[in-house]
């Protein structure tokens, strides 16, 4: 009964956010701050899942400037956990098929996000060049999930190179953002589903990398994020004892 009630409430809230958010975003069509505002609206829904979410930002986060944020992509709960971490003047890169999701697709388009055609590798490569160009010309940052798909309990998957290629091309740092593990830890029939920690790490300087060794940059970021996710999981486990 609790699960059904939660689903009904969350679906209603999501549709409401999409409708009102689309109207708001169409008035401010593709304003680069739209994405962060909508992300925080969705990020406020976590109590409906019986979660307590702690969001940690570095003290110097306002000084980061243009960058590419990369986050771990676990499951659909990302929408109410790590999405809150999206900063102002930040757009995301998502697969082209998102446009066809009822209600959400219009919102995703109107807020000014960048669509990626994964089926066409040449177009995908061109999109990363466009991302790099937009970062500097439009003075914005970009949010990406470098795993390319939800991990669904398989740990932090290997990273695709797009985000790192774009960062090196644009000459901006990579900012890792991690969320503690949520896979198999949320039961919608359970009143209290515990704590989740989302944390933004310090920027990774990309000036010492080129397109030829961009894979080394990706592997370094993967190691940083993997280590921090494990530390957050340990912290939560110790707090629950």
UniProtKB/TrEMBL annotation:
Gene Ontology MF, one: 1-acylglycerol-3-phosphate O-acyltransferase activity
Domain Phospholipid/glycerol acyltransferase residues, every copy: 67-182
Keyword annotations of the record: Acyltransferase, Lipid biosynthesis, Lipid metabolism, Membrane, Phospholipid biosynthesis, Phospholipid metabolism, Transferase, Transmembrane, Transmembrane helix
SMART domains: PlsC
Listed GO CC annotations: plasma membrane
Biological process, per Gene Ontology: CDP-diacylglycerol biosynthetic process; phosphatidic acid biosynthetic process
Root EC class: transferase
CDD domains: LPLAT_AGPAT-like
Annotated TM spans: 7-27, 97-116
NCBIfam families, alphabetized: AGP_acyltrn (TIGR00530)
Free-text comment about domains: The HXXXXD motif is essential for acyltransferase activity and may constitute the binding site for the phosphate moiety of the glycerol-3-phosphate.
Protein name: 1-acyl-sn-glycerol-3-phosphate acyltransferase
Organism encoding this protein: Canicola haemoglobinophilus
